[in-house]
Sequence to fold (127 residues):
Amino acid sequence: QVQPVESGGGLVQAGGSLRLSCAASGRTFSNYAMGWFRQAPGKEREFVAAIVRSGGSTYYADSVKGRFTISRDNAKNTVTLQMNSLKPEDTAVYYCYAARWISSWPLLSNPNQYDYWGQGTQVTVSS
Fold:
């Protein structure tokens, strides 16, 4: 199993950038598809981005496409979410998820299909 731990959140002005990292303990990180989800106050948790085990395919929510980039380094057991051109509506707690048994769309967009997740990191974008 893996235990994701997020870092890199903070406060940034609109138009700025942040880089979130997720470190996942365990020797089998490369066996897991990874995803980022976010939850704003009073809203349901929503899909942001996902990457398959090899890193060969990535998926994005329409709201972040062209602004966010997900990547992974299987040698370092890390997955990264580079967020550019941030908007106030990107404000949320961002969670890193790991999925052992799924690797395709649209399953990767459903948090209930994942097996492990972290405690989240707060991202606040001021206008």
Notes: The first strand starts at residue 3 and ends at 7. The radius of gyration is 13 Å. The chain has a mean pLDDT of 96.
